[in-house]
Amino acid sequence: MNGMFITFEGPDGSGKTTQVGHLADYCRSKGFHVVQTREPGGTLISEKIRELILDISTPEMDDVTEALLYAAARAQHVSQVIRPALERGDIVVCDRFVDSSIAYQGHARGLGDGVAEINAFAVQGLEPDLTFYLKLDPGIGLMRIRKQSSFDRLEKEAIEFHRKVTDGYNVLLGQHADRYQVIDATLSEEIIAREIRRNFDRWLAAKKSV
User: Is residue 6 classed as helix, strand or coil in its secondary structure?
Assistant: First the structure.
């Protein structure tokens, strides 16, 4: 595959979705064909699964069920959207990927290595080339979210859960330092976007020189 797979990770309220859009637009301005997408979601089937996972009317959902639903949505997303785009040579910019499941379900839900295993099967070996991690204290993220008129089932979790998510990401940062770019999400939207563009250009130049 000749495309580039770029993911965004971070706690709820860190501004990932906004920055995914900014980077996708920047890549298009440089002449790249870009697919902008999200998880869970990105396909009709995956979006239907997303509705089920995040529905606040299903608080009884078992943690293992939740993890399996995320993996199922991801399998469809990879098969139908991400892998074909990469095979065409496109850049795929995705809001969350496997790392989110490892942080949220593997670490915060306490499901452990099984989450990585079911997702390895779901994505059939696909890994991001570059990941931007928007670093933010989970307390600040929740304050941002709860100013909104609505929030989803995971966003409603207590602060202790979200702190465990951050702990999970910290483990991933140590394991995948080669592909992670850490961005301070307390900065303004434009400064964050500029920092991401700068890091992307530097990473792309290094990739071309290999």
Answer: strand
- Cα–Cα dist 151/59, whole Å: 14
Per residue in 31-86, pLDDT (tens digit) is 999 999 999 999 999 999 999 999 999 999 999 999 999 999 999 999 999 999 99
User: Which among 45, 18, 167 has a CA at the least distance from the CA of 102?
Assistant: 167
With a CB cutoff of 8 Å and minimum separation 6, the contacts of 33 are 88, 89, 90, 91
Angle (CA) 19-24-28 rounded to 5° is 150
Q: What are phi and psi of 89, to 5 degrees?
A: 95, 15
Handedness of CA 75, 178, 130, 208 (dihedral sign): negative
Structure tokens at 50: 């997303």
Amino acid at 50: R
Q: What is the pLDDT of residues 151-210, one digit of tens each?
A: 899 998 999 999 999 999 999 999 999 999 999 999 999 999 999 999 999 999 998 887
